Amino acid sequence: TYALFWFALAAWVNSLRRSSAWNATVLVGAWLVLVVVLPAAVNIAAGMLHPLPSRVEMITAQREASNEAVSRRSELLARYLEDHPEMASGVVADEPGLGALAWAATDAVNTRLEEVSAVHDASRADQLALVRRYRFLSPALLAQEVLIDAAGTGDARFARFQLQVRAFAEEWRQFFVPAILASEQMTVDVLPDVPAFRFVDEEPAEVAGRAAVPLTVLGGLVVLVIAGAGAGLGRVRGAD
Questions:
Q1: Cβ distance 148 to 210 under 8 Å?
Q2: Where are the alpha helices (DSSP H) in the chain?
């Protein structure tokens, strides 16, 4: 559909009966505007209106949270057990093990990183929403969205993967953290019960559903350009 759009546009321009230099200039100009200028302008605007937090900020937050957590491990453990009373069984309150203290510090660092990641994810979602809102300005953006989604590297599939990873991380914690807090010795007998991650991929119908809108718009553009080319060629034949 995308290639057909450009073939139809070339036919339309050629039907105007101008010079070859004029035709080439118009087609190159259309290509630059629709493929280079507009997509770049939309992406730049998205980045300026909804800037992502810097990686340096994330690394700094991790380091600060880690340093603070190490110095407040006992307090963090008490707070963690307060928030998760179901995991308090087996923990010796007066003499918590090193594993329990380490987990309390790790959980505090993870919580801080999740806060920073949430800001990043929100800004990224705003960027994607803006790009999707103005994707209809450029056939290249429409085609890119369809091709990336069909290749399995689109934002929808990645969001699905992230959601399942977070759910698995929670399942992993539910399995290991009680043993860590109780300072239990792990043996090979528990290996069959260790949670395993299995990604549940989306159905082809979901991908096709997302591709329906951009493909329909592309198809509409092709029909309009073909109609213009047909009218122009009809005038050329009539003049001859």
A1: no
A2: 2-14, 20-31, 38-49, 55-71, 73-83, 98-134, 139-150, 155-181, 204-239
Compute the radius of gyration of the chain from its Cα atoms: 28
How wide is the angle at C-alpha 202 spanned by C-alphas 50 and 157, nearest 5°?
20
The number of domains in the chain is: 1
In terms of Cβ atoms closer than 10 Å to its own Cβ (0-12, 13-18, 19+), residue 95 is: exposed
Residues in the chain: 240
C-alpha 231: how far from its chain's center?
43
Tokens of 6: 């450009």
Q: Find the domain containing 196 and state its range.
A: 2-239
The Cα–Cα gap between 111 and 105 comes to: 10
What CA–CA distance (Å, rounded) separates 87 from 99? 14
The string of pLDDT tens digits covering residues 177-215 is: 888 777 777 888 888 889 999 999 999 899 999 999 999
CA distance 8 to 228: 9
Could you report the per-residue pLDDT of 16-55, keeping only the tens digit for each?
888 888 989 999 999 999 999 999 999 999 999 998 877 7
- Measure the CA–CA gap between 76 and 96, rounded to whole angstroms: 12
Q: How far apart are CA 5 and CA 25, in angstroms?
A: 18
Question: What is the pLDDT at residue 86?
Answer: 53
Contact 221, 5 (CB under 8 A): yes
pTM: 0.75
Where is pLDDT greater, at 190 or 84?
A: 190
